[in-house]
Give the backbone structure.
Amino acid sequence: MNARALIALAVADFRERVRRPAYAATLLAAVGLACLAVPSAASHWTILDVGGYRGVYTSAWIGTATALAGALWLTTGGFYVVRDAIGRDERTGVGRLLAATSLSTPAYLLGKFLSNFLVLASMAGVLALTAPLMQLARGESFAVDPVALLVPFAVMTLPPLALTAAAAVLFETVPLLRSGVGNVVWFGVSMAFMMAGQGPHAPLGGFGVRQAADSMRVAMADQGISVRSRDFSLGLTMVDEPLRTFRWDGFTPDGAFLGGRLLFFVLALALALLPALWFGRFDPARRLLGAPAEGVQAGSAHGAAAAAEGAQAAGSAHGAAGPAAAEPQVPALFGGVPASAARRGRAFPFWRLLAGELRILAQGVSRWWWLAAAAVTVAGFVTPEPTMLLPVAWIWPVLIWSRLGTQRVEHGLDGLLGAYPTPSRGLLAEWAAGVVFTAVTGVAPLVRMAVAADWPGVGAWTGGAILVPSLALALGVACRTHRVFQVVYLVVWYLAVNGVAAVDYMGVVRSGGSPAGLSALAVAAVALLLVGVALAVRTARHATR
């Protein structure tokens, strides 16, 4: 396959993906990040802090701050935008068509890598275009230097994005990582890389933080300002006072640093081509990609059967929707439930629906998962601080929560379940099942806080127990994929665990022994609003059938 055909394949795939809503959403988030990277002079929020100082908003400072912020965001969030390229080819049958051509396995993997990189690079390009606009908007310097603005993107943002693009290819060819487990694994990997990439001994120069920080300290010393190397902070933080300013005209990358940048691309290329050793090119006889498309684990292959059972429950609850002359049994697809049992189910339709939704939600979960959840619960009863293990208890089920609102679509039962006349009952039962599941996984901190009469903590816990399944259901119903919730929840959870009180939905950020975050009523109100959004979306879809 020649280079022109390879590029054409990558560009065609790129064009298809930039039309998706997820791409637009990530671009909007990137633009918002650019605004955060260049806050107003009086802001108490910052992304780049050098010992209580920031640079005057010149092209050099804004280009560097925006490039570093983009590298952090797109390395983590961009992965979730590009990671489904191979899976989509498998689902649509395009993969088999390509496998029937002269396209080799390495060429196919390379095309997907290039496509991933083009998508991520285009997002970085939007950030680069936003940077001069932010410089002019802040008004501290109107001398726009294109070189000083763009060089940081070339040497700080693009190299890590190449690794992200290659990792997306690798994850899609490893059965376990293809599933929702891969989303969680990547979040942990990207967080570790984010921290290691900012250190003084970051591999291959990391994000380039050390080179920029050294240059800034030299410029500050020339202006009579002394800061330590550990005073350099990259990441969204809140400061007590607005940052003071110093003049910085950028840094000139040396040969060793540029060599490390090139090694990023070499390593990314090797990582993208590595799956050629086992990738089966969609050949059913070599089905090494035979893991479930996006389940919690291999056991979630039973999800379709569980969804069928949920349809049975829904059918019983909405018995009036069926013909007047009921059949003696529900069809065999639904397990052959006797008519007498169906009549008994009508007496308590919601509870029957709730029981069915709980079974669906927990279907296929490994016994090892339950053992780990039990261990976390037991540890929650013996830890000195009741809320110490709550973040662990409420991150462990993230892949199960992400099933809310999505299983009927992902298992092909949306049309069947959508035939019932009142979708609200099923949706509310699904939401209630999520609330019950959330409460069970976090029961230990609740009991401890209740025994200690920590009623503000109990209130915060209650708000969180309602919010998490509400967020999962709303995103699942609206986006019809579990991946969006997994990404959004991981980010919110990470911020809460790192002490950002503004998004603390669990009550783990404390001040004077009481929750310092949002009030429990505010969290509950947001949760109920999300349930209303999910109900409105599903009702609108039902009405258009």
Notes: The first helix runs from residue 3 to 17.
